[in-house]
Design goal:
six-stranded mixed sheet, five-stranded mixed sheet, 17 helices, about 40% helix, globular
């Protein structure tokens, strides 16, 4: 049975693309470019870019709307159906394949986007299967290990040691030893000491961010990638997922096994709204957490905590790995002000705007100069971001990889979300992913 979750949306969009073209973005005019983003922390930086853009383009005005992550995608999807979509919106690579397939994006081939002007791979990821560009590079992020220095000091672990950890699926390597030693039960026993009570843990060595769905960005992805595994059979627009791979399943089994041993917070401690990994660390319930660069300011802002970062551990394949996700700005197919939207997106992707954004020290812009501006801004705040930037600069010791770029991303999520929760939360065998993988690949084959 075909499990495409957005079939109804596709039908509605097909009608809207022919019948709603005149309506475009509600409330916009020929002098206004409507722009949506989801990160409130970034809004001031883009307001600054908009101000400069308006000065360079007299008569054009950029109206910025900021929405929370969940509301953002719900309202954006609804706007495509209602014909009230924005002219320009911040796009996510995980959503890109579905939007391109539904033909709600405007090709950006005429913007003259030069791949070499951005960090490697960022521009290429936004090329559709039809050979057209649908996104102009905006920013990027990687994943690192955040740690509470007071707790690592108490455990006798130095920054050098934390940046030199390695793992394997058999005994967990020095990474598991470190996480075990950072774990403390209610009686003060550490995870690697005799008498440790895994059922009554006071401080976990590693926080949890849940099951990770089908991408595991801040959960298991650095482990599976450093074991030599990749999501699909191709770098982009793969036709087969590989969740049935022994390398993947052994890494995931070991990773979730950390919770069974009492070293990682259990699935029941995780809540996507109120108790994510960063909240567990802030509350003193976990000593470390894998998290993304977009969370740097959040961890740095924890009152009374000296938070530091370390690179991801080296894996069996001989390298360290981290997902390198890159956002982009896209223009909607039915944008009312397409000329203004093109000018705005071209400006957003320019070195000029990206240096401005970087100067706010909130995110790493896609251009090298924008990245450098961000690094300098973080340094001014006393924040060392080497653990996030080193993987991008050092291709010898690090592997960076993208979100899986395929069709039917919503269906992959719909299948992998409960599957990974069952494995982490209910102890279901990782071999159950064989069947899930078959279901996913059946959908992709249609």
């Amino acid at each position: 049975m075909r499990l495409r979750t957005l079939t109804a949306l596709a039908g509605a969009l097909a009608l809207c693309l022919t019948g709603c073209a005149e309506s475009g973005s509600a409330g916009s005019s020929s002098k206004t470019v409507t722009y949506w983003l989801w990160d409130s922390n970034q809004q001031p930086a883009y307001q600054a870019c908009a101000k400069d853009f308006e000065q360079q383009n007299p008569g054009l005005h950029v109206k910025i709307t900021q929405l929370g992550w969940d509301d953002y995608w719900t309202k954006l999807t609804a706007s495509f159906i209602a014909g009230t979509e924005p002219d320009v919106f911040t796009d996510h690579i995980q959503k890109f394949g579905q939007f391109a397939d539904l033909k709600v994006l405007e090709p950006l081939d005429d913007l003259g986007v030069d791949d070499s002007a951005y960090q490697p791979g960022l521009a290429a990821n936004w090329m559709g299967q039809d050979g057209h560009r649908y996104g102009a590079p905006k920013d990027w992020d990687t994943v690192a290990l955040f740690y509470n220095k007071k707790m690592t000091d108490a455990a006798g672990l130095t920054a050098a040691q934390l940046n030199d950890l390695a793992w394997n699926p058999k005994d967990g390597g020095t990474f598991e030893k470190a996480v075990a030693h950072l774990t403390v039960d209610k009686n003060g026993k550490r995870g690697d000491e005799p008498g440790f009570d895994k059922n009554n843990v006071k401080v976990y060595g590693l926080a949890t961010n849940g099951g990770g769905d089908g991408d595991g960005q801040t959960q298991w992805s650095n482990f599976t990638a450093s074991a030599g595994w990749s999501y699909t059979d191709k770098k982009r627009w793969g036709t087969k997922y590989r969740y049935d791979s022994p390398a993947f399943q052994s890494a995931v089994k070991w990773y979730f096994g950390l919770a069974k041993k009492g070293y990682m917070a259990p699935f029941t401690d995780y809540n996507s709204q109120s108790n994510q990994a960063n909240t567990q660390v802030a509350a003193g319930k976990a000593a470390t957490a894998f998290d993304g660069a977009w969370m740097i300011s959040t961890y740095a802002g924890f009152k009374g905590l000296d938070m530091r970062t370390a690179v991801t551990p080296e894996g069996p394949a001989g390298k360290r790995a981290t997902m390198m996700n890159g956002l982009a700005d896209s223009i909607t197919k039915n944008a009312r002000n397409k000329d203004g939207a093109r000018k705005w997106v071209k400006y957003l992707s320019s070195n000029e705007c990206q240096k401005t954004v970087g100067s706010y020290g909130i995110v790493f812009p896609a251009t090298p100069d924008g990245t450098a501006a961000a690094v300098a801004a973080y340094q001014k705040k006393g924040i060392d971001v080497t653990a996030f930037t080193e993987p991008v600069a050092d291709k010898k010791d690090f592997t960076t990889f993208s979100y899986p770029i395929t069709n039917y991303a919503a269906d992959v999520f719909a299948l992998m979300h409960p599957a990974m929760q069952d494995i982490f939360g209910n102890g279901k065998s990782v071999t159950s992913l064989d069947q899930t993988n078959d279901q996913i690949n059946l959908i992709l084959s249609q």
